Description:
- This protein is mainly β.
- About 0% of the residues lie in helices and about 40% in strands.
- It is built from one helix and 24 strands.
- The protein has one helix spanning about 5-10; strands at about 30, 35-40, 50, 65-70, 80-90, 95-100, 105-110, 120-125, 135-140, 150-155, 170-175, 175, 195, 200-205, 210, 215-220, 225-235, 240-245, 250-255, 265-270, 275, 280-285, 295-305, 315-325.
- The strands form five sheets. Strands 13, 14, 15, 16, 17, 18, 19, 22, 23 and 24 form a ten-stranded antiparallel β-sheet that branches. A five-stranded antiparallel β-sheet has the order 1-2-10-5-8, with no helix packed on it.
- The model is unreliable at about 1-30 and about 160-165 (pLDDT under 50).
Amino acid sequence: MTTLGTMWRLGLFRTLLVGGAISFLSPQSASAQSVTIDTKASSAVYPAWLKPAPLPNQDGTLNQLAFAVSVPGGAAASSSDLLLTVVFDDAAGGFLRVYRQDGDAAEMISDNLFEGTGLPNRRTLLLRHVASSGATTIVFQADGAAQPVRRLVWEWPQAQPVPVVGDAPAVVRNQAGIAAADVSGQPLPSPQPNVDTGYTSTPLLDKPARIEGNALFGATLGRLPAHAVLSAKVAGLPLGAQLECWINGQRAGALAAALPSLRDPAYLLAPGQPAVLAAWREASAYLPATAWRTGDNEIELRPADPADPANAKIAYALKDVVLEFVYDETPPPAPASTP
């Protein structure tokens, strides 16, 4: 007989379902305050405040989607600002632009959501002051034969916008602030170098890069650090894989990438197919001080997946790769002896 204490000591956990079952939310779902539309589905359920709209240009030169949106009536929304999350297939050299039409006035929201990785991705946009009469139309335009937009999540924030430092406000969603730059639709800023007393932070990439195989970086050190952390954002890496970090030919650690809840709309799930997350993931690794040497150092990131070694050769993307060092304080010179 196995007791509960023994089960916990063995690291086992069981869930007993009595007269019930686990059900998953369909990506084709709607509510009074939010709706998720899968653009590849054969049919869609729309709330009263969101409908497909006529396409503005039908000459065949652009791949387009258009939607008419208005503020839900009653207490369904606390403001006229709307959060729109776009899940799409990125493309190298192409474009996916988004603009809004309010009556006769047009405003470009994003010239291009693509980052050139050729991998599934997502961006969240803040649409300010949506019309209450249904006069606001959101238009997606892309080049190429296939429509890159896979999924759209339309969400009315649960709270009023709040001011933040920057050119635009952030909004509060699920008690978490969203930075203005993250929802502007413009290219996201890259990390900047930072040097302080006993501390340095150095970006190793100036823009997103698609990688096939190992990624190589270099760092030249004038003195040895006491502590080091390598962080990055990674996309396209299989969910069970990681990036092993090798320094000067020796394995020094692995970048572990965080995973969001399975309810996140960026998951692209299909029966019999590996799960895909269309999003950048934060990854970081603490690297031992003994791995470094003064002068030139070689940093190599190697994809590794214990469950499927073939995933070591898959294409992935990196951005915001940053190397941080903390140095021990240099002791002050000894005072000169007096005769």
